[in-house]
Design brief:
By secondary structure, this protein is an alpha/beta fold. It is built from eight helices and three strands; from the N terminus they run ααααβααβαβα.
Length: 126
């Protein structure tokens, strides 16, 4: 049973605290999922035209298990376009499409607010 628990995603969290929680019968849930549920993300997506996600870097982490992946997965249930605005975009178009993204924009240095506003207007239905 120890090997099975050790292979659980999140079992190594907190220096093995995740393993201990699982061994005691607890359930390990990704923090992103908990936060998304707590802020009512699904209800917000149901009322949206487009989803704009702000990230520091759009790369393997964000596309694999980060905030972008969680939001894109939930937005797909509502057939919403997901656009990422990031300081740096290092993932290619193929990786972006596989993660369910409709587009990605890099803002570089400075303040991303103007770019976020422009992207939201461009992709919005209204």
């Amino acid at each position: 049973a120890g090997r099975r628990l050790a292979g659980l995603p999140g079992a190594g969290s907190g220096g093995g605290l995740g393993f201990a929680i699982a061994a005691l019968g607890g359930r390990l849930v990704p923090a992103l999922r908990v936060v998304a549920d707590d802020v009512g993300l699904d209800a917000r997506l149901a009322a949206a035209d487009v989803v704009v996600v702000l990230a520091d870097e759009l790369g393997a982490h964000e596309l694999g298990e980060g905030t972008v992946r969680e939001v894109a997965g939930r937005a797909a249930r509502h057939a919403l376009p997901v656009v990422v605005v990031a300081r740096a975009v290092v993932a290619g178009r193929r990786e972006q499409a596989a993660a369910g993204l409709s587009g990605a924009y890099a803002w570089g240095d400075g303040d991303p607010r103007d770019l976020v506003e422009r992207v939201a207007r461009t992709w919005s239905r209204g």
